[in-house]
Amino acid sequence: MRTRKQPQRKCMGCNEMFDKKDLVRVVKTKLSDDPEAYEISLDLTGKKAGRGAYVCRNADCLQKARKARRLERALECRIPDEVYDRMEREMEAGA
Fold first, then answer.
1. What is the number of alpha carbons within 13 Å of residue 47 lying toward its C-beta?
2. Helices (DSSP H) in the chain: which residue ranges?
3. C-alpha distances in angstroms, 46 versus 23, 25, 34, 80, 83?
4. Of 13, 31, 36, 41, whose CB has the highest number of CB atoms within 10 Å?
5. pLDDT band of 95, cuts 50, 70, 90
6. Sheet of 38-43: strands edge to edge?
7. Domains in the chain: ranges and CATH
8. pTM
9. pLDDT tens readout for residues 37-67
10. Residues 35-44: contacts with CB within 8 Å, 24+ apart?
């Protein structure tokens, strides 16, 4: 039986390539027709609709991405500190 090729994604924190299944997706979901109405959340399943960016499953990479504002550039929006804090808690609980 043939083995499938695993899609690769780059971590926004450490800038290394990993298999997609080894990373956590951060997704920006549109809430309405208003361009300012969106929600930023972790997508542990990888199936939510919306624009996504990937980070490693540890909090260090999330902090590196936060400091360099890489997630904000990838998702094309401003991310408040409360959202980063919530994502860190979710990542620690999910890991």
1. 1
2. 59-68, 70-75, 81-94
3. 9, 6, 25, 22, 19
4. 13
5. low
6. 38-43, 24-30, 51-55
7. 8-94 (3.30.1230.10)
8. 0.85
9. 889 988 888 889 999 999 998 888 999 999 9
10. 38/77, 40/75, 40/77, 40/79, 40/83, 40/87, 41/87, 42/87, 42/90, 42/91, 42/94, 44/90, 44/94
